[in-house]
Amino acid sequence: MPEEGFDYRLVDSPLVVADASKVEAMVILERMHGPLFDAIHAERKPLFDLPALEVLLVSLGADGEAFREAYASFGVDIKVRQAAETVRRLKRDRVPALLVGGRHLTGPAMTGIRERTTQALDLLVGQLPNL
What is the domain extent for residue 109? Predict the structure, then answer.
């Protein structure tokens, strides 16, 4: 698990910020999720400080000032704290870990292989009540 005091904003904020405004979020998330994932996991870019994260997001078309404002906002702070608490409560230290319906946890580390993870997700999502 990340060490005590780890700033989860640096990991979660780009996606939480995108969630802050639903209509705009769908466009931002769709456009940025893949490149952000690749930058972190494939290119191994060190995005663990605000300036580095902002440079990447601006290069992807984000408004830097709007990102900084959203990053520092109360709404984002609350969502990031909730996400960090969920990680601590579930004692998860590996990714990906997928939480379905707020109570069912799965992922490749639990199922062994990606195909089984997909099967587990299908099963768990099928058990969710219709909304």
Answer: 94-131
Q: Indicate whether 119 and 88 sit together in one domain.
A: no
Q: Are residues 60 and 99 in the same domain?
A: no
- Residue 14 burial (C-beta neighbours within 10 Å; 0-12, 13-18, 19+): buried
The pairing of strands 104-106 and 98-100 is antiparallel
What are the tens digits of pLDDT across the range 42-79?
Answer: 899 888 888 888 898 888 888 888 888 888 888 888 88
Residues 131 and 85 in one domain: no
Supply the pTM of this predicted model. Answer: 0.55
Query: What pLDDT sits at residue 6?
Result: 57
